[in-house]
Design brief:
heterodimer, A: about 325 residues, four-stranded antiparallel sheet, globular, B: about 725 residues, alpha+beta, Immunoglobulin-like, four-stranded mixed sheet, three-stranded antiparallel sheet, 16 strands
């Protein structure tokens, strides 16, 4: 292969491919499998030197940017859907469970990766996690519920009821509200402490798979949501306003902010799309991997992104300036 | 780990090797030996997995195939779009339904096996199905397909049983585009239209008739559906129909079917009853009364020709077409308005076309391609009849193709060939029109395809997409529709003509043509359609062919052995007079016209050119309001309100003895009660009273009664006459 071009013929000036396949998984699987399980979520370690990936093959820690295997962690459940580091970077949580049976969260110390806490209480898989400080963790489950856990007591302190179908994503705003979204096509804003539903926003027409809060300072909190209606919508959730939206060629599965005005989406056609969030213009489209790109994360320091998805693929991508 | 582990292991064990052996003592007359299939190394998602889901009912409308899916899991209806099914199973919800590391833990396996709670219960029964699913997951749950299905061949497609409890083996062979074939009987879902009439034995792959008559079993494999007709003679002994008169092809086909069913036929109608029937069927009027006893020994062909060339025929069939096309003035919530002038213009256009003998193909073409001011050019009002382009597609296909395409709005039609592209492609054509009094082309009009979120491309039903720069696709649609080889257009209208004269369509419902709803007499339907086309789409010609048949002239009185027949025309079906016809007939008998809205006094109900003209009488008689199809009219049932109105309402009671009416005039003319009664019999029923009736009337009009009592008795008699079944039914 031409060393300056990857297997899809995309110039390396646009994409730097460091490692195409999550090799570790191959060694751990039955050799009869023609495909490897998809990577369903990824999260960079706070120092940016490693990345944690979850899939039905388990929890794997890879080096960054080499994407070499550092460690495989034992998790007590088959289906892993989400991984998230605590704000102080001293722990991370992984959520999942047994479909239609049980939702489970396990919390590991970082970087030692020792199992610290095991949270059980949902009736279906946990698919999203959001930290509120280092003590409270809110879990979103396909059982339609959200639970706020005190991880010191390992007990839920509050349950948020209101979604009519599975909840797919939950995020805490700096202003204190909880924003959630899911298979009932709605975005909901809750009072974290009381569990009271503040408002519901219904502009999406298909299930919403991800919420991403803009981490950059703005006058009002800004979030983006990605949904099966192929749109990414930008909202000011504290005032219940949908500001703008963009419809993509393919369904966005995950989104991450790159700057105050830029966001990247990994899509069902394996592409990454970069969007100007102010003008809702598409500025870049890059083929990242074959199949569905379930997860995307922006590196905290080096300006690259990681994209992962079908067949255990994970890739490092350098976006065009 | 989990208390379901034991169940996993057990089911996995079953999946890996359990075979069931079917034993049966059912009587069998036709069976096929099972044909072994070659071992397929890689499971074919489209040709193995999807049919299995169909067979198990997973993708049926009441389960995950419904428009919104079920339990958060949506499959395409009957596997219409395998690619989206594959994504739903393997990709959606982060692929949680498939567990590649532990296939037996896959949700797609544990749910239907009811290892975990499943709203649909345990449907993954039988070791073969579980084995197939697990094997596919172990192979990587890939979207692999070895070949593309071309069609299926079902044997038999028709089974003529000799008696109840006879059964036939069923075999289904798939033909693929690469020329290969395969026995897919084990992957085919068989569904009896009426499970109490046909029993499907899924182990032996047989269909057993449980009742006499004609029954349908649907064989569904992948996207293909084929009906199997099961016929069981109604009588035990053959019926000799060789001496029955055969006027034309109609009789040949009808008698052949009855011969198979061993159905006896009712005798031919007498001339008096024939005259009444043919007048009502072709002109919506009672026979003209000229003050004499009804004619006997008529030349039936001349009667038919005279009626078909009459202005009354034009009035009546204009009304029928106007009801089919739902012509009525209205202003709906979306301000799509049909003005009274437009409704009258449209009705007038139909009347003129019929009067001039314009072919139905030309009428259809002019309506579909209409443009301009609907208040002066009636056909343009066709595009304000319904509210939006999607409803226009439903309306158009029902009217001109006899086909219900509306299912394809949301998903590919489960029982027909129509895809969402067909529905939205046709809708795209109608989206290019303004929907106001003046119909104009609207270049920026578009129809958003629900699957793509983009403007749908114009497409002919079941055919090609039109070029993107097409400004008005209706011309191409009209060309396609009225092409001689179009399989829908001619059949749809001849079926309606047949229904009009025979009381039941060869295909019922009239707007539900599809392979899975076959005609009772498919050869006859094809012949009538071909003959219609050969004769220039001439409505009068086909009406005459049907009216001239001996089948049409059959008495409505059943004979021993055909009393229960409602499908095969062994005797004429009783059907209610249409509300407009009944209203006119009552007026004719009573000699007092009704008043309709602001129309001039004396205007007949069948002449009304706007279905929205107010009339309480027509409303209570069950008039169709024309906002929806009039073909499922409650008039066929006879609503209670109509009965009460006839008993107690002003429609009769206020007019029977009214000054200047027929009864009053005859009394004033000093006619005897019996003379008056005979006159009413002749006007209303086109016959004289028979001996029993004469005896009854003689007693009723007792000469000892005073004048007032005589008049009251006569009023009672007339009331009884115009409410009796013989009067209010076509028979």
């Amino acid at each position: 292969m031409n060393p300056n071009r990857n297997r899809w013929g995309i110039p390396d000036t646009h994409i730097t491919t460091v490692m195409a396949t999550f090799i570790v998984m191959c060694l751990l699987h039955s050799p009869t499998l023609a495909q490897k399980p998809p990577i369903t979520d990824i999260s960079f370690a706070p120092d940016g030197n490693s990345i944690v990936c979850c899939s039905q093959s388990g929890l794997h820690v890879l080096t960054w940017p080499e994407l070499a295997s550092l460690q495989k962690l034992d998790v007590s459940f088959d289906n892993l859907h989400c991984v998230s580091f605590a704000p102080d970077g001293k722990a991370f949580a992984v959520g999942g469970g047994y479909p239609s049976e049980e939702g489970i969260v396990q919390i590991f110390t970082w970087p030692a990766c020792q199992l610290q806490t095991h949270l059980v209480g949902h009736d279906d898989s946990v698919v999203s996690l959001t930290w509120e400080g280092n003590r409270y963790l809110t879990t979103a489950s396909l059982d339609r519920l959200l639970k706020r856990w005190d991880i010191t007591t390992k007990m839920p302190v509050l349950t948020y009821k209101g979604h009519s179908r599975g909840v797919r994503s939950a995020r805490i705003l700096e202003t204190g509200e909880l924003v959630t979204a899911g298979n009932d096509d709605s975005v909901r804003v809750w009072d974290v402490e009381s569990g009271a539903l503040i408002r519901t926003m219904n502009q999406h027409s298909k299930p919403i798979c991800r919420i991403s809060v803009c981490p950059f300072p703005l006058a009002k909190p800004l979030i983006a949501t990605a949904a099966g209606d192929r749109t990414i919508r930008f909202w000011q959730p504290t005032i219940g306003r949908m500001m703008r939206y963009i419809r993509l060629e393919s369904e966005p599965l995950d989104i991450c902010w790159l700057s105050e005005t830029q966001m990247a989406a990994s899509c069902a056609d394996g592409h990454v799309r970069v969007i100007d969030s102010q003008n809702v213009n598409l500025t870049q489209t890059l083929l990242a991997l074959e199949g569905w790109a379930y997860a995307i994360a922006a590196h905290p320091k080096d300006g690259t992104i990681a994209v992962a998805g079908s067949d255990g693929q994970i890739r490092r991508i350098q976006l065009r300036k | 780990m989990h208390n379901k582990t034991v169940a996993f292991i057990l089911l996995s064990f079953l999946a890996s090797g359990l075979k069931t052996e079917a034993l049966s003592t059912e009587p069998q007359t036709h069976t096929h030996p099972p044909e072994s299939n070659p071992v397929v190394e890689t499971i074919d998602f489209i040709n193995d997995l999807v049919p299995m889901f169909t067979k198990l009912g997973c993708n049926a409308g009441k389960c995950h195939g419904s428009a919104i899916g079920r339990g958060g899991f949506k499959l395409s209806l009957y596997g219409g779009t395998p690619k989206s099914d594959y994504e739903a199973i393997t990709r959606r919800q982060a692929g949680r339904r498939i567990n590649l590391t532990n296939p037996e833990s896959s949700l797609v396996f544990t749910k239907p096996s009811e290892i975990v709670e499943h709203g649909g219960g345990e449907v993954l029964t039988g070791g073969e199905n579980a084995e197939l699913l697990i094997k596919w997951i172990k192979q990587g749950a890939q979207f692999t397909s070895h070949r593309k299905l071309k069609h299926i061949e079902v044997h038999p497609t028709r089974f003529l049983a000799s008696r109840v409890e006879d059964s036939t083996g069923i075999k289904v062979k798939a033909h693929y585009h690469d020329g290969s074939t395969r026995d897919v009987t084990h992957l085919t879902r068989f569904t009896a239209d009426d499970p109490s009439a046909v029993k499907i034995n899924r182990d032996l792959m047989t269909a057993q008739a449980l009742r006499t008559g004609q029954h349908i079993v649907l064989a569904r494999y992948s996207s293909e559906v084929t009906p199997i007709e099961i016929v069981v003679p109604i009588a035990d002994t053959p019926t000799d129909l060789s001496r029955e008169p055969r006027t034309n092809f109609v009789d040949e086909e009808i008698l052949e079917a009855m011969s198979e069913l061993r159905l006896p036929v009712s005798p031919t109608l007498d001339d008096q009853s024939f005259i009444r029937r043919i007048n009502l069927d072709l002109t919506g009027r009672l026979p003209k009364y000229n003050g004499k006893a009804p004619t006997i020994a008529v030349d039936r062909e001349k009667v038919i020709d005279d009626l078909l060339s009459s202005e009354e025929f034009v009035d009546f069939y204009s009304l029928k077409l106007a009801k089919l096309l739902r012509i009525h003035s209205k202003q709906d919530k979306n301000l799509v308005t049909t003005t009274p002038a437009a409704a009258r213009a449209f009705h007038g256009y139909l009347a003129t076309s019929l009067r001039d003998g314009v072919g139905y193909d030309q009428i259809a073409r002019e309506i579909i391609t209409a443009i301009g001011d609907s208040s002066t050019y009636g056909p343009a009002a066709y595009f304000t009849t319904v509210e939006d382009p999607r409803l226009q597609t439903e309306f158009t296909t029902e009217v001109f193709m006899g086909s219900r395409m509306k299912c394809a709005n949301c998903h590919n039609h489960p029982l027909d060939k129509w895809t969402q592209d067909d529905f939205h492609g046709l809708t795209a054509m109608f989206s290019k029109l303004t929907r106001s009094q003046v119909i104009r082309l609207n270049p920026i009009g578009k129809n958003i395809h629900p699957n793509t979120g983009e403007a749908a491309l114009m497409k002919l039903p079941g055919g090609a997409f039109l070029p993107k720069n097409t400004k008005d696709g209706r011309q191409a649609f009209a060309d396609w529709l009225t092409d001689r080889n179009n399989p829908y257009f001619a059949k749809a209208i001849v079926n309606r003509l047949w229904m009009s004269l025979m009381g039941r369509g060869l295909v019922e419902p009239l707007d539900d043509f599809r392979a899975t709803n076959p005609a009772t007499h498919p050869v006859l339907l094809n012949w009538l359609a071909s003959d219609f086309i050969e004769h220039g789409y001439d409505l009068r010609h086909t009406l005459k062919v049907i009216a001239m048949s001996s089948t049409y002239s059959r008495s409505s009185r059943p004979v021993a052995g055909n009393e229960m027949d409602t499908h095969f025309y062994s005797h004429r079906l009783h059907t209610p007079l249409e509300p407009e016809v009944l209203a006119d007939a009552i007026s004719d008998v009573l000699g007092i016209p009704s008043k309709y809205g602001s129309e001039s006094f004396g205007t007949r109900a069948v002449e009304l050119r706007d279905g929205a003209i107010s009339s309480e009488a027509l409303d209570v008689l069950g008039r169709c309001n024309r906002t929806n199809s009039c073909e499922a009219s409650p008039a066929r049932i006879g609503p209670l309100a109509q009965k009460l109105h006839l008993f107690n309402g002003e429609l009769l009671n206020g007019r029977i003895g009214a000054k200047g009416g027929r009864l009053d005039t005859l009394i004033e003319a000093m006619k005897t009660p019996m003379e008056i009664a005979v006159t009413f019999y002749q006007v209303a029923l086109n016959r004289d009273p028979n001996l029993r009736e004469t005896h009854f009337l003689t007693e009723l009009f007792d000469s000892e009664l005073g004048a007032d009592q005589q008049r009251a008795a006569l009023e009672d008699f007339v009331w009884g006459l115009v409410t009796c079944k013989e009067f209010v039914l076509k028979h």
